[in-house]
Amino acid sequence: MSTPTDALQRLRRVHEDAVLSALRSAGGLSRAQLTERTGLSRTTMFAIVSGLLERGVVIETEGSAAEPRGRGRPAALVSLNPDAGLLLGLDLGRNRVRLAVANAAHQVVATASADLPEEAGPEEEAESAVRLVRAAAAERGLSLGALEAIGLGLVGVVDEHLPPVPLGGERSAVVPARYLPLARRLGEEFGVRLAVDNNARLAALAEATWGVARPVRDMVYVRWSVGVGGGFLAGGRLMRGAHGAGGELGHVCLDPEGPPCHCGSRGCLEGHIGGRGLLERCAAQGVRLPALDALVAAAQDRVPAVCEIVASAAADLGRVLAGTVTQLDPALVVVGGELAGLGSLVLDPIREAITERSLPRSSREIAVVPADLGVNASAMGAIALLLHEEPSIPAHLRPDVP
Amino acid sequence: MSTPTDALQRLRRVHEDAVLSALRSAGGLSRAQLTERTGLSRTTMFAIVSGLLERGVVIETEGSAAEPRGRGRPAALVSLNPDAGLLLGLDLGRNRVRLAVANAAHQVVATASADLPEEAGPEEEAESAVRLVRAAAAERGLSLGALEAIGLGLVGVVDEHLPPVPLGGERSAVVPARYLPLARRLGEEFGVRLAVDNNARLAALAEATWGVARPVRDMVYVRWSVGVGGGFLAGGRLMRGAHGAGGELGHVCLDPEGPPCHCGSRGCLEGHIGGRGLLERCAAQGVRLPALDALVAAAQDRVPAVCEIVASAAADLGRVLAGTVTQLDPALVVVGGELAGLGSLVLDPIREAITERSLPRSSREIAVVPADLGVNASAMGAIALLLHEEPSIPAHLRPDVP
C-alpha cells in the first residue's frame, strides 16, 4: 500500500511533469497561463515553479508587452532553461568506457569512447572516464556547467538494497563496491545526480527508447558478446528484479551436467556460448582465434568450422529464449552484441528454436530482430534511464515508458 | 511517447485518486477542505467532485453546524457512497465457478461456489454464474444494485488485441470467444463494468494484494493443479505479456524429445507434472487413482509410489522455476494449487532445484513458500484486478500495486 507521503510526492511529481510538459510544447508561459493549462491552484503552481526555478530547471524572463494584460508590467514568462539539461550517459564496459550526451530536447549530440588499460583498477577507471568526458565536451564545445545528471551503466548486479553512497550535497547513489571510486569521482568532478544500472539492461532500454523496440511494450533483449546479458521490458517498464538481477540470461542453466561456472552453478548459458567458450570450441576444431572480433570476422568469411560452432551456439541461445518467450510473452526478441552482427547465421537458429519450443500462441507472432543501436546502446540507455527517472525531466512518460 | 490527451487523462485520474484517498481516510470533507488537502484549484476540484457525484461514487450530505464557518449554511460534505462500491470477483474454472464479494472498504464479505455441469456449454456456464451470484447476494443480504464492477477470471489467454465486446451503454470488455455468452449475460444482468484476466494470474495478484506475497514487489507464482499456470509480479505490477500470455509456466519445454502437447510443442511442463500426467504415472506404478484429490490424499497418507512420483515432478517444476528465478530475480516464489497443500514433499524438491540451478545471487535470498489464500484466490484476484484498474476506485496504488 502507498503511504500518504508517497501519494503526495507522486502528486507533486505529476504536477511538475505537467508544468514541464506544457513548457516543452509551448515555449514560455506565464504563471497564469500555466495555471489555466494544468488545472492546478495558483498556490500549488507558485510552489511548483519556485521549486523548478531554484533547481535551475526553468528560468524566468520578462514577458513581451504584446501579450494582452490589463495594466502594469507584462507578466513574467517561465520557460525551460536552455543552459541546463545536458544529460551524460556513461558505459563502463570490461575494457572500454563509452559516453553519449543528450541535450534538453533529448537528442544525442555527442558520443565518444576510450580503451581502458588492461587490468585497470577502479581508480584508474574513474580517471579514464572523467578524462573522456572532459575531452568530448571540449571537442564538441559543450559546457559541462549545463550538465544536469549522469546515467551510469555497469557490468554486474546493481542492487537497490545496498546503502546509497553520499556524493556530496544531497546527492547519493546506489553503486556496487567495485564502482565506488568512480561514483565518488564523478560526484566530486561534476556535482550532479547519478543514476546507475546494469549496462545490458540499459542497452535494452535504449532499444526501447530510440531503437528497434520503440513501438513495443513487452520485449526480451539479449546481448551476445564476450558475456551474455539481457534486459526485459514488461508493460513498458524495465524489469529490475528484487535484487537488481532481472534480465539475467547468461546464467540460465543450459545443461545441469555441464562444467562449473564462476557463478557457482553448472552448465550456464554464458559458459557455453559466451566469447571464451566459442573461442575454445573453435580451437578444439583447429581454428585458433585471438579474440571475439576475429571469430566474428571468420564467421563473416564463412569459415565452416566457425559457422557451425556459432550456429549451434545460437540454437542453444534459442532454446533458453524459448522458455523466456513462453513465460514473458514478448512482442519482440532483440539480439544485440557483436554476435548479432552475423545476421541470419545467428538469428535463424534462434528463431527456429523459439518457434519449435515455445507456446505457439506467442511464437507465431514473435519477431526475432537484430538490435539497432550498435556499440553506444548502453551509453544511450544510461541517458534513457535519466529521462525515465530524473524528476526534473518531463517524466510523465514514466509509468508508460517508453 | 504519451500524447497530451494521455497526460491529461492521467492527471485527472491522479486528481480523482487524491480526492477519493482523502475521503477514505477522513470520512466526509467539504470541497474547501478537499481543495486544501489536495492542492488542486477550486475549479478543478468542483469538476472532479461533479464527475464523481454523477457516477455515484461519492455522495453529498449536509455538513454539521458544529463545523466552524463564518456564517450561512454549513458547507456540504462530500463522502464515499456507502451504497455503492460492491465489487464482485468471479472465477470460471474448468468445472467450478467461484465468487467473492468485497465492500467499499475492500474487505471480502462473501465467498461461494458451485459445480459446473460436466461438459457445460458457454450458455449453461453463464446461467450457473448468474444463479450463483443471485443466490450468494440473497443469502448475505447484499444489494446487487450497489454492485460497481465485476472482475472475471478465466482459463486461457486473455488477449488485449481482441476487439472489445459491447456490453450495453458505454461498457465493453475484451473476452476470448469461449466466454462471450458469459460476458454478455453478466452485462445484461448487472449492467456494470467488466474486467477480465487469466485466473492463475489473478491468483498471483490476490496473493500479492492479500496473501503471502503482500510485502514483495517481485514475485513468481505457480499454480500446480490439474493444469500448471503462473503469474509474475515485476516491480509491483502483474506481467500480462504482449498477447495476454505472460506468466505461462505450463508450456515451458521441459524435454525437447518429450511427448507432443496439445499446445503444439513437445515435452511441456504441464504434460509432465499436470494432474493427468501424475495420475498416469501412478497407474503405471500400479496405483490407480480416480482424480487429483485422491492423488493428493494418497501422498498425504505417504503411499511410497505416489510420494516418489510427486517429489520427482516437484523437482521438474523446480528445474523450470530455476530458469525463471535467474531471469526475473523475484524476492519470493509462491506455490499454489492442490499440490502445494503437500507442503515439504513438494516445496523441498522445488527449493533444492532452484538453489542448485539458478544464479546464487538470487537463490541465496529467495524463499519458496506455499500460497495463503486457498481455493478462492482467483475470485479474490478478480476483485484485486478491479481495485487496480477501475478508475472510480482509489487506485493511487496503481503504479505501485500492490
From TrEMBL, chains A, B:
Keywords: Kinase, Transferase. It comes from Nonomuraea wenchangensis. Belongs to the ROK (NagC/XylR) family. The keyword Kinase applies. GO terms for molecular function: kinase activity. InterPro entries: ATPase_NBD, ROK, WH-like_DNA-bd_sf, WH_DNA-bd_sf. Pfam families: ROK (PF00480). This is Sugar kinase of the NBD/HSP70 family, may contain an N-terminal HTH domain.
